[in-house]
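quick q for whoever's on today - can somebody do inverse folding on this one?? i tried earlier but teh output was garbage lol. tokens:
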């Protein structure tokens, strides 16, 4: 069914990017994900094609899904679906405007096409995936650090920009020390964890303390981002305007003069 879904996207020219857990797995930065997460271009034409693909794959609404309108996609809501398949099927989570990564059109230019068991998929770039993973979940920062190391190891001679980016975005003390020793950056980012690793590379506890401070700050920003969106979701729930759980997803049919 997953292969059928992506084939339908291709046939209907749905603009999407694979993000989150499955994208991390494809890059080799994670080993497990329970669901599939997508970022779709939140234009009305693309939304129409996306809904038609969901209908053809017999998708159903899952918990806390707002109406599938262009307005709700643009506002940053998440949409949750189940699709049939072996072992009870699978979960599909979709966004039209995820946090911290800007416009879809720009992300699409940075994206990669990767061959998978489900076909050739459009996958968000590592740089954008790193931003998407700066969530409240502590485990995401281990995945981010894996992604950063993979980016560096892909290049025989990483340019200074990539090295600076890596020093700003890794959340393992050992990796910060490794980057400083291996690539000898020409400039040091104004980050306490990096400066402490440079001054006392053997005292990793100090580096880790600064890393935890960085993570706490990012977690706070993620909470602030989602607070108004969750407030809007609660309002929709109180007004009984969410898509009923289990409802089949269907593209609205146009009424004829005789209907």
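ok took a stab at it. sequence:
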């Amino acid at each position: 069914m997953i292969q059928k879904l992506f084939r339908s996207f291709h046939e209907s020219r749905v603009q999407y990017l694979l993000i989150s857990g499955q994208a991390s797995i494809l890059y080799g930065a994670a080993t497990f994900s329970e669901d599939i997460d997508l970022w779709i271009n939140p234009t009305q034409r693309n939304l129409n094609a996306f809904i038609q693909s969901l209908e053809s794959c017999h998708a159903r609404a899952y918990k806390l899904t707002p109406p599938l309108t262009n307005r709700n996609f643009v506002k940053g809501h998440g949409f949750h679906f189940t699709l049939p398949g072996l072992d009870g099927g699978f979960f599909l989570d979709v966004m039209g405007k995820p946090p911290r990564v800007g416009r879809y059109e720009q992300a699409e230019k940075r994206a990669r096409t990767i061959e998978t068991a489900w076909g050739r998929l459009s996958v968000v770039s590592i740089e954008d995936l790193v931003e998407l993973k700066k969530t409240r979940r502590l485990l995401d920062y281990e995945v981010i650090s894996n992604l950063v190391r993979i980016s560096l190891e892909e290049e025989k001679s990483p340019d200074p920009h990539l090295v600076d980016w890596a020093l700003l975005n890794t959340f393992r003390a050992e990796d910060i020390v490794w980057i400083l020793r291996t690539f000898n950056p020409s400039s040091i980012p104004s980050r306490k964890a990096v400066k402490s690793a440079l001054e006392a590379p053997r005292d990793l506890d100090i580096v880790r303390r600064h890393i935890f401070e960085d993570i706490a700050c990012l977690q706070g920003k993620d909470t602030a981002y989602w607070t108004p969106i969750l407030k809007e979701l609660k309002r929709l729930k109180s007004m009984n305007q969410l898509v009923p759980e289990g409802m089949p997803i269907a593209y609205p049919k146009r009424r004829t003069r005789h209907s």
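fwiw Residues 255-259 have pLDDT under 50 and may be disordered. also Strands lie at 16-19, 35-40, 60-61, 78-83, 90-95, 112-116, 119-123. so keep that in mind when u check it
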